[in-house]
């Protein structure tokens, strides 16, 4: 199964959009490529404690499923939410992929610059990105940039990206190993990664990587990883609507 769940495509000012050496992007894509996830699987995992192997063949209807899932979420019985999986293919700048890999209960496979030559594709923010930060770490807000900020960022970044990629390709042409040559590339270089998790791990990720003022523990994630989270949450809510609704009802806290 392959389904595109979200892709944020934006316009870069035309004067800055193209370069003879590099490609600039502002989008981050999240694609669901495989899954085995349903609300019923949560109920069957929970019911095995009292029904044994009979639980695998039970389906007591939507009302029972919803009630039991709410109970499990409210009382924080988390293990029944682990017997499923969702696999995503993400295309994002390396600094965003590193945020994703902070979630250590997930499984990851990322393209490797040891084994392949990376394409000259680099991230720049678009006009919707809040560019300035006010306050101290842990107690700050993002605010819009001032006139000219975006143009300065894109212009400066593209110059650095082009220079870095020239050095990279010159090293490769000179016979330097890819694993050495890659050291000059910036963390804004795009990478692709497979990421697999269960619903419990995904809920923990969503609680940290989305900004929801109504959450029990509001978080202030970097916008780029929040775009990844939003794409994943769209599929989670589609595949496991009762689990997602209970997650929302009880403060967006993973059980």
Automatic annotation (TrEMBL):
| Keyword hit for Methyltransferase | yes
Is Cell cycle given among the entry's keywords?
no
Name the UniProt record assigns to this protein: Flavin-dependent thymidylate synthase
Concerning InterPro entries, the annotation shows: Thymidylate_synthase_ThyX (IPR003669), Thymidylate_synthase_ThyX_sf (IPR036098)
Taken from the record, one Pfam family name reads Thy1
Q: Which residues bind FAD?
A: 79, 102-104, 110, 198-200, 204
Which CDD domains is this protein grouped with? ThyX (cd20175)
GO biological process assignments: methylation
Enumerate the PROSITE patterns for this protein. Answer: THYX
According to its UniProt record, in which pathway does this protein act? Pyrimidine metabolism; dTTP biosynthesis
Q: Which family does it belong to?
A: Belongs to the thymidylate synthase ThyX family.
Which keywords fit this entry according to its UniProt record?
FAD, Flavoprotein, Methyltransferase, NADP, Nucleotide biosynthesis, Transferase
Q: Which GO terms describe its molecular function?
A: thymidylate synthase (FAD) activity
Enzyme Commission numbers on file: 2.1.1.148
What this protein needs as a cofactor is: FAD
How it assembles, according to the record, is:
Homotetramer.
**Active site, per annotation:** 209
* Function in brief: Catalyzes the reductive methylation of 2'-deoxyuridine-5'-monophosphate (dUMP) to 2'-deoxythymidine-5'-monophosphate (dTMP) while utilizing 5,10-methylenetetrahydrofolate (mTHF) as the methyl donor, and NADPH and FADH(2) as the reductant.
Q: How many cofactors are bound and how?
A: Binds 4 FAD per tetramer. Each FAD binding site is formed by three monomers.
């Amino acid at each position: 199964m392959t389904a595109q769940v979200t892709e944020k495509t934006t316009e870069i000012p035309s004067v800055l959009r193209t370069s003879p050496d590099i490609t600039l992007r502002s989008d981050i894509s999240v694609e669901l490529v495989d899954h085995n996830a349903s609300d019923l699987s949560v109920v069957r995992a929970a019911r095995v404690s009292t029904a044994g192997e009979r639980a695998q063949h039970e389906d007591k209807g939507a009302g029972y499923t919803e009630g039991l899932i709410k109970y499990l979420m409210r009382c924080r019985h988390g293990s029944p939410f682990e017997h499923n999986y969702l696999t995503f293919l993400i295309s994002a700048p390396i600094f965003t992929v590193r945020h994703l890999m902070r979630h250590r209960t997930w499984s990851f496979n990322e393209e490797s610059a040891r084994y392949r030559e990376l394409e000259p594709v680099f991230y720049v923010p678009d006009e919707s990105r809040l560019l300035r930060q006010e306050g101290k770490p842990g107690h700050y807000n993002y605010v819009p940039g001032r006139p000219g900020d975006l143009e300065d960022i894109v212009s400066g970044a593209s110059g650095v990206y082009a220079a870095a990629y020239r050095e990279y390709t010159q090293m490769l042409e000179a016979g330097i190993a890819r694993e050495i040559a890659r050291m000059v590339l910036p963390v804004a270089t795009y990478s692709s990664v497979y990421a697999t998790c269960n619903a419990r791990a995904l809920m923990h990720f969503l609680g940290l990587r989305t900004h929801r003022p109504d959450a029990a523990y509001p978080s202030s994630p970097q916008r780029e990883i929040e775009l990844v989270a939003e794409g994943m949450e769209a599929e989670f809510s589609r595949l496991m609507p009762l689990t997602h609704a209970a997650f929302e009802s009880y403060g967006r806290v993973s059980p």
